[in-house]
Every structure is written in structure tokens, then in C-alpha cells.
Design brief:
Blueprint: H1 2-39, H2 45-50, E1 56-66, E2 73-80, E3 86-93, H3 96-99, E4 107-117, E5 120-130, E6 142-143, H4 151-154, E7 161-170, E8 180-181, E9 193-198, E10 203-208, H5 218-224, E11 231-237, E12 247-253
Parallel strand pairs: 6-7
Antiparallel strand pairs: 1-2, 1-4, 2-3, 4-5, 7-9, 7-11, 8-9, 9-10, 11-12
Length: 254
């Protein structure tokens, strides 16, 4: 019986040792991840939001989507790493080789200037560096159905990934078209798409940005197939141009 107790005691000690080792390993990993975040100097989203226009800013952000790379530049839709807001980074300097890594899920450190164009708050003249950080808690799209058509309410979510549901497709052109190629209907397939929707009380104009989601994408083709009177749900990024001008990335006809 004493021998049995001794064997059991040794087993318990071994198990406790393994548990302590595992906890120490987890703590070390957490410390290493925290230290990695500390190693980068950057603004919180709140600090960025409070910064004056035309001042230099440095932000840590995770890529949500990009527009087409062109002439060593790429435009990025990104969420703040702290999860408190989102950025539109316009024509960031980027080599063609690096553009392959600036993809959804990549976390990058961006330095540029906080700028404003027709109401859109964006980061311009930007450069970046890759980081090895992983966004553990991606921002969920915010449901802005209740704020439809209310710029005062929507402005607080500028550049966020959002959804709206139960909207009605209205005529966009003089001839009753459900959508237009280019804002005035002067374009052709491959150009930006513009379409008008309502919630029964007011209307908004949505855009399918061709550099973001071109003619070969599901959302582009879904808008081309819309009919006036369709009820739809949409998702996208809350871009701004003289008011809310969302860049739509998803359309579902109900």
C-alpha cells in the first residue's frame, strides 16, 4: 500500500509540474504578444479621431479590403487594431510585390497625414510596414438600418464595415433604370455603378466602386440584375462624398 501511495504521489507531482509549465508557457506567449504590440508606437483610434487635419498620424490597423494596386499605390479600407473605428487610406505607397501581402487580415503600421476630401476623413501620403500581429477580435459589421438617410447619425461610423436591411430599389435614371454606369449614366460596363434605394421615407445613393469590386464580382453583377421595386439587404464600407456615399460590397435580393 505504501508503494502504491508513493507511485500515486509521484504521478500527482508530475501532473502539477506539467500544469505549471503549461501555464508558464501560456503566460510567456501572452507577454510576448503584448510586448510585440508595445514595440510599435501608434495612435489609438480615439487619438487619431481627435487629431487635427493635416497633421502626421501613425496608426496600427488590420486590412479589411483594398482597391486595385496601381503605379506603386494602393487604397486600403482598414479597421483600427483597438477595434474602435476604421480608416480609409488613400493611395498608400506600395510596391507591386508588397501589394500581395496587403490583403484582408494583414495588420500594418501606417504613417501619413490625416486629410479631408469632400467630407471623407482619410489618411493620405502614407507609407507602411508589415507587422506580425494578428487581429484576434475583428470588428463585426455595424447594422445601420435605423440610421438610413441620417448623415448626422452615420458620420460617427464613417469608414466602418456596415449592413442595412429591407431597402427598396428606386429608379436611378430619367428612364427608370435600376442603376447607372457612372454617376450620371454616361459610363459603360466596368465603370462604377450607382443605384438609389429607400426605406420608405427617404433615399440614399449607393456605389459599387469598380476599383474595389469590379465587373467580375458577385456584387457588381447583382446590381446589374436589380429591378426597381426589389427589396434588398446590403453590406459595404461607409465612405463619404458630400454626405454618406457607401461603397457596397454585398447585395442580397429578398
Amino acid at each position: 500500500m505504501k508503494a502504491m501511495k508513493k507511485v500515486l504521489s509521484l504521478a500527482v507531482v508530475a501532473a502539477m509540474a506539467l500544469s505549471v509549465f503549461a501555464c508558464a508557457a501560456d503566460t510567456a506567449a501572452e507577454t510576448e504578444e503584448t510586448q510585440a504590440a508595445v514595440d510599435y508606437e501608434y495612435m489609438s483610434y480615439a487619438e487619431y479621431d481627435a487629431a487635427a487635419l493635416d497633421t502626421e498620424v501613425t496608426v496600427l490597423c488590420t486590412v479589411m479590403a483594398t482597391q486595385s494596386w496601381w503605379e506603386d499605390q494602393i487604397t486600403v479600407y482598414a479597421q483600427a487594431f483597438d477595434g474602435d473605428g476604421a480608416y480609409f487610406i488613400y493611395n498608400m505607397a506600395c510596391s507591386e510585390e508588397d501589394s500581395e501581402g496587403v490583403a484582408e487580415g494583414a495588420t500594418i503600421l501606417v504613417t501619413g497625414y490625416k486629410s479631408e476630401w469632400e467630407g471623407e476623413i482619410e489618411i493620405t501620403d502614407a507609407t507602411f510596414e508589415f507587422t506580425d500581429l494578428v487581429q484576434e477580435n475583428p470588428m463585426e459589421p455595424v447594422d445601420l438600418t435605423a440610421d438610413f438617410g441620417n448623415d448626422d447619425a452615420l458620420i460617427a461610423n464613417q469608414n466602418r464595415n456596415f449592413t442595412m436591411t429591407g431597402l427598396t430599389v428606386e429608379a436611378s435614371g430619367d428612364n427608370g433604370e435600376a442603376f447607372l454606369y457612372s454617376w450620371d449614366g454616361s459610363g459603360s460596363q466596368g465603370d462604377d455603378l450607382y443605384f438609389t434605394v429607400s426605406n420608405g421615407e427617404t433615399t440614399m445613393t449607393f456605389t459599387v466602386e469598380s476599383y474595389l469590386t469590379g465587373a467580375d464580382t458577385d456584387v457588381y453583377q447583382a446590381v446589374e440584375a436589380l429591378n426597381v421595386g426589389d427589396t434588398i439587404d446590403v453590406s459595404g464600407f461607409l465612405y463619404w462624398y458630400q454626405g454618406a456615399n457607401p461603397h457596397i460590397t454585398g447585395v442580397t435580393v429578398n
